[in-house]
């Protein structure tokens, strides 16, 4: 984790895997092997040892943070005259394509939901807030899908604002990776969870503040805690190509899949196609928009080439 520990001036405290695992304390393992298998992504394999050594300490930390924030909310509520408004604790999760964000988010959701003081935990991927393909095509943005300009940012900000205002039954759009598009008319409803995990590529991105000091909210302004999944660029490229190859043998074979045209490619052709997509879209977005936000995260999980988390950097308070 040289990126966050230079010259002793880093705002982070960095832990090796062994050091971090000791912070589990007496946190019970509430996840079975069967459940873990169901939570994993296509090529983001997580072992039970990983859950015990990395995710249990992390769930303990987040449980402590949520409990502390709940007490702060109570104090603020008392100060404001007892509005009795439930405010969810929002966790943001960022990182590259193929870094394993979805798997990490699902595991955390499950573990956090089994702590007694916040049993209701929801998960919202920001993919649902991408502009529909028809809009992206009309604005010549299909090759920029996943870049900041391809999202309906006002809709995402309205969603988060409603969640933080304690509103009930807040709806979010649904995205299909199979159809590679936002699904018309489909919604998920978030109804005052104790914890909400918001997962996406660019959720930690900010912009240049206006000179007149006018307030402009960023997505991360609504987060109580944020994580970044990190890995070497060459490792991420390998994982992306491997996932593409696996999808070519599975989902891409369905004629209704948006990427069905890739199913008939040879291994060599598929490798080249995936590599070209990685370099022209995903790597460009990562270097320009995603990676620069890493240092804004409260916690960074650094993954090795075997998908295991090798070290953890926690922002100092």
N/C terminus separation: 19 Å
Query: Number of helix segments?
Result: 8
Strand order of the largest sheet: 1-9-8-7-2-6-3
Mean pLDDT: 93
CATH class: Alpha Beta
Beta percentage is 15-25%
Molecular shape: globular
Reported by name, the CATH topology is: Rossmann fold
CATH homologous superfamily label: P-loop containing nucleotide triphosphate hydrolases
The radius of gyration is 20 Å
CATH architecture annotation: 3-Layer(aba) Sandwich
The number of domains: 1
Query: Which spans have pLDDT < 50 for at least 5 consecutive residues?
Result: none
Kindly summarize this structure in a few lines.
By secondary structure, this protein is of the alpha/beta class.
Describe this structure as you would to a colleague:
By secondary structure, the chain is an alpha/beta fold. It contains 8 helices and 9 strands. The longest helix is centred in the first third of the chain and has 32 residues, at 48-79. It is globular and about 65 Å long.
SSE layout and pairing:
Elements: E1 12-16, H1 17-21, H2 33-39, H3 48-79, E2 89-95, H4 101-112, E3 121-125, H5 133-138, H6 153-164, E4 170-176, E5 181-190, E6 195-199, E7 225-230, H7 233-248, H8 267-290, E8 299-303, E9 309-315
Parallel strand pairs: 2-6, 2-7, 3-6, 7-8
Antiparallel strand pairs: 1-9, 4-5, 8-9
Helix pairs in contact: 3-4, 7-8
What features would you highlight for this structure?
single chain, 317 residues, alpha/beta, Rossmann fold, seven-stranded mixed β-sheet, two-stranded antiparallel ribbon, 8 helices, globular
């Amino acid at each position: 984790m040289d990126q966050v520990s230079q010259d002793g001036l880093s705002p982070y405290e960095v832990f090796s895997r062994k050091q971090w695992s000791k912070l589990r304390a007496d946190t019970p393992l509430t996840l079975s092997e069967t459940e873990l298998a169901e939570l994993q992504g296509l090529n983001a394999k997580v072992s039970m040892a990983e859950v015990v050594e990395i995710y249990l300490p992390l769930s303990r930390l987040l449980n402590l943070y949520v409990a502390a924030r709940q007490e702060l909310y109570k104090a603020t509520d008392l100060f404001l005259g007892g509005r009795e408004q439930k405010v969810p604790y929002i966790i943001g999760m960022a990182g590259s394509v193929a870094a394993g964000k979805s798997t990490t988010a699902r595991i955390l959701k499950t573990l956090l939901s089994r702590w007694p003081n916040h049993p209701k935990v929801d998960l919202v991927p920001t993919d649902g807030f991408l502009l529909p393909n028809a809009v992206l095509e009309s604005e010549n943005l299909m090759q920029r899908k996943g870049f900041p300009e391809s999202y309906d940012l006002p809709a995402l900000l309205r969603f988060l604002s409603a969640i933080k205002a304690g509103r009930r039954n807040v709806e979010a759009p649904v995205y299909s990776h199979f159809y590679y598009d936002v699904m018309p008319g489909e919604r998920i409803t978030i109804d005052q969870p104790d914890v909400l995990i918001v997962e996406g590529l660019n959720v930690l991105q900010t912009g240049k503040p206006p000179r007149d000091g006018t307030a402009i909210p960023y997505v991360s302004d609504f987060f109580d805690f944020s994580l970044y999944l990190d890995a070497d660029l060459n490792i991420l490229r390998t994982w992306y190509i491997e996932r593409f190859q696996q999808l070519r043998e599975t989902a891409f074979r369905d004629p209704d899949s948006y990427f069905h045209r890739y199913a008939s490619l040879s291994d060599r052709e598929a490798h080249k196609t995936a590599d070209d997509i990685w370099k022209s879209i995903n790597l460009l977005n990562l270097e320009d928009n995603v990676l620069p936000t890493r240092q804004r995260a409260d916690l960074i999980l650094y993954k090795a080439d075997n998908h295991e988390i090798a070290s953890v950097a926690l922002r100092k308070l």
